[in-house]
Amino acid sequence: MADPSELIRRFNLLLKGHTSIYEAESARLTNVVKGILPRFLKVRNEWAEAQRKTAEDFNLLEIMGLDCNEVCHSRLLAWLLDRRIEIGTHAQGNLGFRLFLEEIAGELQTSSRKCVLAYADEPEYWVRREYSGDESRIDLEIAARGQFLIHVENKIHASEAGEATDQAQTDREARDLETRRIELAVPKSNCHGIFLTLNWGKATNNRFRSIGWVRIANVLERFALEAEPAEVTVFARHYARAVRKLGVLDRAEVEAENADL
């Protein structure tokens, strides 16, 4: 960390050569920096010392540059929901799927909440990534033949896509969802589309219900409390923290964009 006087010197150098407005304000701004910088450095050093034992801001996903990767998030969500030991290597069976259903049951259109929660007890349910229909490719499919079908369209920073025909992405996905429902002989009441976004963006097609990623963070935090392996618990907490931070950053970006309009 540079000495405060050195930072002030560099600040003054930056001001030189700019417009006359900045030059006229240089003395005032320098005084402001002189007043703020020592206090900032003191607080920053205290924070750094406290973090030495806890490292609360450490997050593996951010370090690896995966926190904004939609494919990565789809894979991690599939990991959480899958009960199979070969795929859901958390080895907690249907725990993640059960907690997921408990969190979002209110948003799913079914005859009863009890019916939705029973999906997790289906012994043959599967979780599949990148399912390709006739018109679209869905990020995540969770289903059990003759019992239920859930398609999840996952968005992080992207918006709903349309083709040259201006046909909305979820319109195409809704038709594929219905085709898949018939193929699997699933009752209409047990067929669901989820539009998963950071900012609770609404899907064009009302067959897809809007769910915020913050709800997945809730699931992950509960999963961390109930899962038995320590390593799985730590990873779930890391993932929940990364998701919540992404939501905060996304809101800040949206607010900044709106302020510029």
Structural overview:
This protein is an alpha/beta fold and 261 residues long. The protein has 2 domains: 4-54, no CATH class; 63-254, no CATH class. It contains 9 helices and 5 strands; from the N terminus they run ααααααβββαββαα. The protein has helices spanning 4-15, 20-54, 60-63, 70-81, 95-104, 113-117, 169-184, 213-226, 230-260, and strands at 126-132, 137-144, 148-154, 191-197, 208-212.
Key terms for this structure?
261 residues, 2 domains, alpha/beta, single chain, five-stranded mixed β-sheet, disordered C terminus
How would you summarize what this structure contains?
The protein has 9 helices and 5 strands. With 261 residues, it is α/β, with parallel strands linked by helices.
Give me the secondary-structure category. alpha/beta
Number of individual domains: 2
Helix content: 40-55%
* Overall shape: elongated
Order of helices and strands: HHHHHHEEEHEEHH
Largest sheet descriptor: 5 strands, mixed
Radius of gyration: 24 Å
Total of helices: 9
Strand content: 5-15%
**How many DSSP E strands?**
5
Low-pLDDT runs:
250-261
Average pLDDT over all residues: 80
The side-by-side strand order for the widest beta sheet comes to 1-2-3-4-5
Distance between the termini: 38 Å
